[in-house]
Design goal:
- With 248 residues, this protein is an all-alpha fold.
- Helices cover 66% and strands 0% of the residues.
- The chain is built from twelve helices and no strands.
- The protein is globular.
Length: 248
């Protein structure tokens, strides 16, 4: 569990810095707002780890729902920006950034991801058996304490025989949410995977290898090697087939 959270946190920390200089479009900002959305996910994962170490398993599962909701929010915003064909600012996103207007709710955002030509195929594969809904329902139960047992899971002075079972469920939930984020995010913004080798060569006055535009950043490949190859191999193979980037 702790290794999984650490790896996801390191991935998000690296990605957050990696995309900082990507100039945003359709927003009033001069920096990439996604840097801070992704950075917040890393901090939420940190809190989840803390809750698990303290034995407050239901709190960890409640925080997992926060992570899930931020992932869906991020995917919705990224897709909305990428699909806007004119070059004017997106008023709804700008109003949300200023705290004036709300973004559509979770399920409207999910429906948008399901129907978009950009993401519908990858989301369909990730949503086999209505996985997105069953995951949300399960996490809602913990947020709203829909069982007396969920209260017991937060009290380390109580011997609760199923505590480890729910830690294992948390592991699976985090795994599913991260894979949803990874595959869908990079389907929307494939260039976020790109390594800096091409621009690094230019900075040093060298002729870059033309193929380096297709190389992925080390942290992108690392998470594939350590988790996705074993846990989501079928979706990974599909993703690699559709992507123009060179993922091993």
């Amino acid at each position: 569990m702790y290794d999984l959270i650490r790896d996801y946190r390191e991935f998000y920390d690296s990605l957050s810095m990696h995309i900082f200089n990507h100039i945003p479009t359709l927003t009033p900002l001069i920096f990439n707002y996604e840097t801070y959305i992704i950075g917040s996910m890393s901090k939420t994962l940190n809190l989840i780890e803390f809750a698990v170490r303290e034995g407050q398993i239901n709190d960890a599962l409640s925080l997992c729902r926060n992570y899930y909701e931020v992932v869906i929010l991020h995917l919705y915003l990224s897709l909305k920006v990428s699909e806007q064909t004119n070059f004017s600012r997106n008023d709804k996103i700008e109003s949300w950034m200023k705290g004036i207007e709300r973004i559509p709710d979770f399920w409207k955002n999910v429906e948008y991801l399901k129907k978009s030509n950009t993401t519908k195929d990858i989301v369909m594969k990730l949503n086999q058996g209505e996985k997105l809904k069953s995951l949300k329902d399960s996490l809602n139960d913990h947020v709203h304490f829909n069982s007396y047992h969920f209260l017991l899971m937060n009290d380390t002075s109580v011997t609760y025989s199923q505590r480890n079972d729910y830690v294992n469920k948390l592991y699976l939930y985090l795994n599913e949410i991260f894979s949803l984020h990874y595959f869908t995010m990079f389907t929307i913004n494939e260039h976020y995977m790109r390594s800096t080798d091409y621009t690094d060569s230019l900075d040093f006055g060298e002729d870059p290898d033309p193929d380096s535009l297709l190389w992925v950043a080390p942290f992108v490949q690392k998470i594939v090697d350590e988790h996705l190859k074993t846990e989501h191999i079928e979706i990974l193979d599909y993703f690699k087939e559709k992507s123009t980037m060179l993922i091993n």
